[in-house]
Specification:
Layout (H helix, E strand, L loop, with lengths): L3 H13 L5 E5 L14 E8 L4 H18 L5 E8 L5 H16 L17
Parallel strand pairs: 1-2, 2-3
Helix pairs in contact: 2-3
């Protein structure tokens, strides 16, 4: 996607066919990050680094999503959080969801950190 002509043709193809573009934000590889929506939906695959900078990056995403909502183009958000050590993923998710709930008026379920394995049956 570093070739603007190729990227523009790709985005046009997705838009013409009403296909949502998946945006991937991988810690340490933000050179690959793009911000092009092809539908009124945003699907973001957020890969954390198990580092305190994960929260700053989430704040950046909150600001971006808020701006997309304010300009009127964003209707649905699919935000997938994961990282190498998945134990902290619920913490990141909870942080992000609380911002969405508190500042944008959503009422999303906030995941809780598990202290041990729960019974499967």
């Amino acid at each position: 996607m570093n070739d603007a002509e190729v990227a523009d043709r790709f985005y046009a193809l997705l838009e013409e066919n009403n296909v949502t573009n998946i945006i991937t934000d991988t810690a340490g590889r933000r050179d690959l990050l793009h911000m092009h929506l092809t539908t009124s939906k945003a699907f973001i695959r957020y890969v954390g680094a198990n580092h305190e900078s994960d929260y700053t990056r989430l704040d950046d995403w909150f600001d971006r999503i808020k701006s997309w909502i304010e300009i009127g183009g964003l209707e649905d958000i699919y935000f997938f959080v994961h990282q190498n050590l998945e134990k902290a993923s619920p913490l990141l998710s909870a942080y992000f969801i609380k911002r969405l709930n508190n500042e944008l008026g959503y009422n999303l379920h906030v995941p809780e950190q598990q202290t041990g394995q729960t019974n499967m049956f």
